[in-house]
């Protein structure tokens, strides 16, 4: 996903988003917004982020026009180069803190169960399809009706 798609794009019935890397620390809000693009309108969605468990030295070119073509300068930015150390474990901890610890983390070794969702959340659900449990939504709307009616009355007073 590019920065263009980070905000303001709505792709109907998008069942999955796979992030090949986590964003820089200053882009975590865009990342959270992006992963929220799946599973909208009572549809089940799944966002997967591939996260390295070790620090990685990655290309980081500040010059957007150049895009690193032909670059061989593997020194870090602080040494005048075009690379930086990327610590996705730290970035993931920041994302989890922002989400209130809600993000589930699984390693490849722990995923022999085929990456099943916890507590049977995904059982009987096909990603991208509408939830079949509309009675729960209807009950919730009915339960909220008195509060909405009271707020509407207060609005005109």
Automatic annotation (TrEMBL):
Q: Would you say which domain of life the source belongs to?
A: Eukaryota
Primary enzyme class? hydrolase
Keywords from the named record: ATP-binding, Helicase, Hydrolase, Nucleotide-binding, RNA-binding
Q: Please verify whether the record's keywords include Hydrolase.
A: yes
One of its Pfam families is: Helicase_C
Q: Which residues form the Helicase C-terminal domain?
A: 1-92
Instruction: Tell me which EC number(s) this protein carries.
Output: 3.6.4.13
Give the transmembrane region(s): none
What this protein catalyses is: ATP + H2O = ADP + phosphate + H(+)
**Gene3D superfamilies attached here?**
P-loop containing nucleotide triphosphate hydrolases
What PROSITE patterns is this protein classified in? Answer: HELICASE_CTER
Q: Which GO terms describe its molecular function?
A: ATP binding; hydrolase activity; RNA binding; RNA helicase activity
InterPro entries, from UniProt?
Helicase_C-like, P-loop_NTPase
Family, per entry: Belongs to the DEAD box helicase family.
Q: Which PANTHER family match?
A: RNA HELICASE
- What is the stated purpose of this protein? RNA helicase.
User: How are the domains described in the entry?
Assistant: The Q motif is unique to and characteristic of the DEAD box family of RNA helicases and controls ATP binding and hydrolysis.
Q: What is this protein called?
A: ATP-dependent RNA helicase
The scientific name of the source species is: Bicosoecida sp. CB-2014
